[in-house]
Model the fold of this input.
Amino acid sequence: MAPSYRFGKGPIVVALEATLRNKVTFDKLYADLTKALGQITSAGDTNFTSDFKTQLAQEQRDHLDKDVFGEGQPDQIAAAEGRQRRVVYYEGLKRAMDLALNLG
Done:
């Protein structure tokens, strides 16, 4: 029996697809992204955790925080690159959501 998702699609992407499919959770994620990006713009980083992220398993949150966004990195360059990735991910997802909203 095949999994409920295509091979290569991990649990974070599956959760994101489910969030984006529902109008209420879509709108909440959009508001959360807007809030986080506002904090990043004003303070250079964010300590805000979205409802989407809190619904992920701890292992998945750790993967995003440490492996993708570089939190807790002793190397300042790696930490700065992680923060920049966070901005790119958040802005990219928000722009894609803007397009979806405009398409109706």
About this structure: The mean pLDDT is 87. Residues 20 and 26 are 5 Å apart (CA to CA).
